[in-house]
Design brief:
The protein is an alpha/beta fold. The chain has 4 domains: 4-260, 2-enoyl-CoA Hydratase, Chain A, domain 1 (Alpha-Beta Complex); 295-475, 3-Layer(aba) Sandwich (Rossmann fold); 521-584, N-(1-d-carboxylethyl)-l-norvaline Dehydrogenase, domain 2, CATH 1.10.1040.10; 594-687, N-(1-d-carboxylethyl)-l-norvaline Dehydrogenase, domain 2, CATH 1.10.1040. Helices cover 49% and strands 12% of the residues. It has 28 helices and 18 strands. Strands 13-12-11-14-15-16-17-18 form an 8-stranded mixed sheet, sandwiched between helices. A 6-stranded mixed sheet has the order 1-2-3-5-7-10, sandwiched between helices. A 4-stranded mixed sheet has the order 4-6-8-9. Strand 11 (295-298), helix 12 and strand 12 (318-322) form a beta-alpha-beta unit. Helix 12 packs across helix 13 (325-345) and helix 18 (478-495) runs antiparallel to helix 24 (594-614). The longest helix is centred in the middle third of the chain and has 21 residues, at 325-345. The structure holds (S)-3-Hydroxyhexanoyl-CoA. (S)-3-Hydroxyhexanoyl-CoA (3H9) is lined by residues 21-22, 24, 57, 60-65, 76, 97, 99-101, 104, 123-124, 127, 129, 131-133, 135, 272, 275. (S)-3-Hydroxyhexanoyl-CoA (3H9) binds next to strand 6, helix 3 and helix 11.
């Protein structure tokens, strides 16, 4: 056996799993565990078996990379049936995460011992799946459907302490889960045939069913476009309505169908793309992160305050710097207010809020950055302002301190050039609201030291972000592609679509908001200012701003917001203005289907993504997708723009772009060379190998 070691403590056999890094249930591990079980059962000196694991995880679940391939026997449900039906008691010793198939292994055992560090959960829902090895059956039978269903619906793991309270764990021990499991196994062995969770029905009463159906109804109303909430309900309902064997078969059939669903494939793709993004090609592996004990954030606006909160949330002391007492007080008040919401919602205790607030030190003047190991500038988005700050920081910051800018599009090399230590400078682009959005674009201008990038990656994870290293160019990855979508949306208006049609097409695609509703929310004047500074125009957007229609804050933008309404209403005035602009440009307006709108919005973005790849600004197509999934609310089950493009077919996208370029006379819509080449070769972005950033 390669992945399981079988040892003995007295009369109890111990099967210890070691399949690094997380003991995923690969075909080899399943086969070895089945063999270990058979050996233990056949050995007349053995009265019970403990399943334990080496490493930080008990078992992280099925091996996700095996999904979609022909299943190699023994399949997990069969292995678990063998465990549950064993004539000798089997006890799980859970010392780390027991997730998905990992918890299902523990559920098939006759008892479970856990340490406080253990976390137990069925996160399949996040991969577009449902538990497929008896989880939807055994968990409701063990802890009741009203506790089990929400656990499977959220996919969030629970702590060992809670598992004990729910009866999911039988015993909690400070350490030595194996020793405690052996003792429990020995005790159970003296009590006759082990009791099988899969055959329990005491928590499947008519009352339980009624309570479960109420939760299910509520869940369906909120489930959106994912097919797996429905499947989960059907599977759990089977525990009430079907005989155990049929209910297991029903679960399995639903699971297998979901594995083949494109939405689950996209979510599984994103799982691995996110982990791949953490590995930066070409980054010197010997580069070790610099220690970060204290941070400083310059600018206490919404962004700066949000970034300071990220540090405080991670337990890192941070100085929040402004130019005046009034501004810093206002910034701190905003932070306190945001924490206040969490306290009110019950997601943060008052004590935790106080602890976090105590980690944020307000300060007036850049000298407050002198003792920081990392300084993040989140000041006004103007090169002159940034250069002045970095020039001063260069004189003040301690040697070895990392100097970062939160700029969302400016040239990091130009900023670094005003310092005597450009190797310590890089971009850390947070997304608004910074304390919520997961994405952190780490912008690496040529010349940034490898250990500075390594520190940024470490810090990103420490702050709970999804860090993606990108190259230095205008707008980096995310905003550079977003600019294409913004231009495409304006083009659509002039060609004949109306704001609500464009927004509906995008929400129909799966975004929470369309581009115009979004612009109205953020403030149309932001884009206007940027366009002016770049000498660019957008006929409709500019005309709205000239009329003072900045969006929600002025009560009108692309839509009307009477009496502070949060959802806009169509405005005939805006629609007339758009029609007039079309006419002035000599455009005969035509209607667009939702699919056409989506294509016209997305194709130019994908084209820009191809340029970004070709220029090496992103190392891999997956990095671009991770940027869009975590920073721009791209619908997770569509896997990101590059993954989506592959699913449409690059030849289709290239042809559509060509047609748009011809129609509009806009050469920037011509398919990028990489897109053209891949399309001609019948390949997708997924075939592009990682480039050293
Ligand atoms: C399931 O179980 C279905 C069953 O109901 C039915 C079956 C019939 N498979 O995240 P990390 C790799 S569905 C394969 O960086 P962390 C990961 O790719 C599954 N590989 O570490 C990475 O590889 P690399 C339900 C996996 O400490 C390495 O492990 N389970 C799997 O931050 C380290 O991962 C889940 O959804 C896997 N299941 O977090 C749990 N898990 O080094 C998914 C991890 O080459 N996993 N890898 O890049 C997680 O949530 C986290 O990885 C975990 C560790 C918390 C375990």
């Amino acid at each position: 056996m390669q992945t399981v070691t079988l040892t003995r403590q007295g009369q109890v056999a111990i099967a210890t799993l070691h399949n690094p890094p997380v003991n995923a249930l690969s075909a080899a591990l399943r086969a070895d565990l089945l063999q270990a079980l058979a050996l233990a059962l056949a050995d007349s000196d053995v009265v019970a078996l403990v399943i334990a694991a080496q490493g930080k995880a008990f078992i992280a679940g099925a091996d996700i990379s095996e999904f979609g391939k022909p299943p190699a026997p023994p399949i997990l449900p069969d292995l678990l049936a063998a465990i549950e039906n064993a004539a000798k008691p089997v006890v799980a010793a859970i010392q780390g995460v027991a997730l998905g198939g990992g918890l299902e292994v523990a559920l098939a055992c006759h008892a479970r011992v856990a340490t406080p560090a253990a976390k137990l959960g069925l996160p399949e829902i996040k991969l577009g799946l449902i538990p497929g090895a008896g989880g939807t059956q055994r968990l409701p039978r063990l802890i009741g459907a009203t506790k089990a269903f929400p656990m499977m619906l959220s996919g969030e793991p629970i702590a060992a302490q809670k598992a004990l309270a729910l009866g999911l764990a039988d015993k909690l021990v400070e350490s030595d889960a194996v020793g405690a499991a052996v003792a429990l196994a020995q005790e159970l062995a003296g009590k006759g045939a082990p009791s099988k969770t899969g055959e329990r029905a005491d928590k499947l009463t008519a009352g339980d069913r009624e309570a479960f159906e109420a939760l299910a109804k509520d869940a369906l109303a909120k489930s959106g476009d994912m097919p797996n909430a429905m499947a989960l309900i059907e599977a759990v309902r089977g525990a009430f309505t079907l005989a155990p064997a049929e209910a297991h078969a029903n679960e399995r059939a639903l699971f297998v169908k979901l594995v083949a669903d494109d939405r689950s494939k996209a979510l599984r793709y994103a799982f691995f793309a996110e982990r791949e993004a953490a590995k930066v090609p070409g980054l010197d592996e010997s580069a070790k992160p610099r220690p970060i004990a204290r941070a400083a954030v310059i600018g206490a606006g919404t962004m700066g305050g949000g970034i300071a909160m990220c540090f405080a949330n991670a337990g890192i002391p941070v100085t929040l710097i402004e130019t005046t007492q009034e501004l810093v007080d206002k910034g701190l008040e905003r932070v306190r207010g945001t924490y206040g919401f969490s306290v009110k919602r019950g997601s943060l205790s008052e004590a935790a809020r106080d602890e976090r607030m105590a980690l944020i030190t307000p300060h007036v003047g850049l000298d407050g950055a002198a003792d920081a190991d990392i300084v993040i500038e989140a000041a006004f988005e103007e090169m002159g302002v940034k250069q002045e700050i970095f020039g001063t920081l260069d004189k003040i910051a301690k040697p070895g301190a990392i100097l970062a800018s939160n700029t969302s599009y400016l040239d990091l090399a130009e900023i670094a050039a005003v310092t005597s230590r450009p190797a310590d400078v890089l971009g850390l682009h947070f997304f608004s609201p910074a304390n919520v959005m997961k994405l952190l674009e780490i912008v690496r201008p040529a010349g940034t030291a490898a250990d500075v990038v390594a520190t940024a990656l470490w810090l990103g994870r420490k702050l709970g972000k999804v860090p993606v290293v990108v190259g230095n160019c205008f707008g980096f990855v995310g905003n550079r592609m977003l600019a294409q979508r913004t231009r495409a949306a304006e083009r659509l208006l002039i060609a004949g679509a109306l704001p609500h049609e464009v927004d509906a097409a995008l929400t129909g695609f799966g975004f929470k908001m369309g581009p115009f509703a979004m612009s109205d929310l953020a403030g149309n004047d932001i884009g206007w200012r940027t366009r002016k500074s770049l000498g660019k125009t957008a006929a409709v957007a500019d005309a709205l701003c000239e009329a003072g229609r900045f969006g929600q804050k002025t009560g009108k933008g692309y839509y009307l917001y009477p009496e502070g309404a949060r959802t806009g209403e169509r405005d005939p005035e805006v629609e007339a203005l758009i029609a007039r602009i079309s006419q002035e440009k000599g455009v005969t307006r035509r209607s667009f289907t939702a699919d056409e709108i989506v294509a016209r919005l997305m194709d130019p973005m994908v084209n820009e993504g191809a340029r970004i790849l070709e220029e090496g600004i992103a190392a891999r197509p997956g990095d671009i997708d991770i940027v869009w999934l975590n920073g721009y609310n791209w619908p997770a089950w569509r896997g990101g723009p590059m993954h989506w493009a592959d699913s449409v077919g690059l030849d289709v996208i290239a042809r559509r772009l060509q047609a748009q370029a011809a129609e509009s006379g806009d050469a920037s819509l011509e398919p990028a060379p990489l897109l053209r080449r891949l399309a001609a070769e019948g390949r997708g972005f997924s075939s592009v190998k990682a480039a050293a950033a």
